[in-house]
Design brief:
This protein is mainly alpha-helical. About 80% of the residues lie in helices and about 0% in strands. The protein has eight helices and no strands. Helix 2 packs across helix 3 and helix 5 packs antiparallel against helix 7. The two termini are about 55 Å apart. The relative contact order is 0.08.
Amino acid sequence: MVGALSTGASVLFLTSIPKWLLISLPATVLLIATLFGMNRILAHKAMKVIKQKYSINIKPKQWQTTVSEIQIHLITEYLIENGMYSKWKIEKLIDSYREDEKKKKLPPLIAPGLLLAITLPNITQLVTRIYAYYNVEKNIPNFIKKTENHSINLNISLFIVIFIFSIMIVATIARWNRVKDAVMEVLEFVRNKDGPKREALIDTLDDILYQIMERSNEVESITSPPHRR
């Protein structure tokens, strides 16, 4: 995000501060390369831990899948040892964890639909004023006055400009939803550091629950009479 913002800002200052672009672009490339490098280092370190602790040889790209499988195995063993390895008990655990997470979540920011609903009436008023202003003879730009049927050309030009601007606003508000989710995740992580662990545990329990249901369906298919399969 920092790289994208700095690169975008460099375009704004391109004419007034040419050196900004020379600093911003290499900095962006360096930042992206650093993030990729850190990701590779993390993958190799994770691979070594898995190899040392569980004697499993894997490739760096596969470590996340392997960790997920190990987590499922360890939590399944824990559930069996504590008499909780059943469909309804795991569902109860998942529901209780989700309820706890809902209580800890921050209140949502303004939804994109509500933001758009608030913005549109103001844009409508502004557009009406723009049309009224430029349709006065003295306010018509000189390059449009020189054309034939300048009134029609003016309104077509205004329509095209306002249409493009409106699309940009809608696209920005649509993107706002993703940015909002990212911001909320960061704020929740700072406020509730156990949140990601709890979410990971819920996902693992979901996987275990899916495996239980899959096995029960297989058993039912094997034991049922042929005419009912």
